């Protein structure tokens, strides 16, 4: 929209844009104690990649090398601007989600995908390495940090909810959408 382009799928890369390997981490202890960028499949199940893409920790996001060259992880403000194009935070959730109840569970309130964002409910991996809320919530990293030391994500829920909130630690795993400026 306008002067930016958004990817319509969750990121699925296992290498940074400089061709450095991003380590796959399946063990909860390795995820929890990570000191570098990591990725995983939801529930450590490779077939989840075909639906939701990969989950990345914030350390991978903060390298500024996660998205392909010329693309970037959106900031909090980028997501706010995008949401404002579709009625603001309180309305944009439906415009950003895939319609129907095949991928998102009922009620999937207001889902039209009018925005073309095609959000998916890929859940997240918490700082202990446990997987949570796939099939009902989508969590997307921003490049922003909050003043209280947490990190900011976009959250979409099957009941139309859209939030851009302080959430998570560096070892939390969430989906990534990339964007680029024209």
Brief synopsis:
The chain is an alpha+beta fold.
Structural overview:
There is one protein chain. The chain has 182 residues and is α+β, with helices and mostly antiparallel strands. Helices cover 15% and strands 24% of the residues. The chain contains five helices and ten strands; from the N terminus they run E-H-E-H-E-H-H-H-E-E-E-E-E-E-E. The protein has a three-stranded antiparallel sheet with strand order 2-3-9. A three-stranded antiparallel sheet has the order 6-7-8. A two-stranded antiparallel sheet has the order 1-10. Strand 6 and strand 7 form a beta hairpin. It is globular. The mean pLDDT is 91.
Write the layout of secondary structure elements.
Layout (H helix, E strand, L loop, with lengths): L3 E3 L21 H5 L6 E2 L7 H5 L2 E3 H4 L14 H9 L7 H5 L25 E4 L5 E4 L2 E9 L5 E7 L4 E6 L5 E2 L4 E3 L1
Antiparallel strand pairs: 1-10, 2-3, 3-9, 4-5, 6-7, 7-8
> Strand order within the widest sheet?
2-3-9
Overall structural class, as computed from helix and strand content, comes to: alpha+beta
Average pLDDT score: 91
Low-confidence stretches: none
* Integer-rounded radius of gyration: 15 Å
């Amino acid at each position: 929209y306008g002067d930016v382009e958004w990817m319509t799928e969750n990121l699925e890369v296992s290498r940074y844009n400089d061709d450095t390997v991003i380590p796959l981490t399946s063990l909860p202890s390795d995820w929890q104690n990570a000191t570098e960028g990591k990725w995983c499949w939801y529930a450590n199940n490779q077939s989840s990649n075909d639906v939701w893409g990969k989950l990345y920790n914030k350390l991978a996001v903060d390298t500024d090398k996660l998205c392909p060259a010329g693309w970037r992880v959106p900031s909090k403000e980028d997501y706010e601007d995008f949401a404002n194009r579709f009625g603001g935070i309180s309305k944009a959730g439906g415009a950003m989600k895939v319609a129907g109840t095949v991928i998102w569970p009922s009620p999937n309130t207001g889902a039209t995908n009018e925005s073309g964002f095609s959000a998916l409910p890929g859940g997240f991996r918490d700082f202990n390495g446990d997987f949570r809320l796939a099939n009902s919530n989508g969590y997307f990293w921003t490049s922003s940090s909050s003043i209280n030391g947490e990190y900011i994500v976009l959250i979409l829920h099957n009941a139309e909810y859209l939030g851009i909130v302080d959430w998570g630690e560096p070892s939390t795993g969430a989906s990534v959408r990339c964007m680029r400026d024209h």
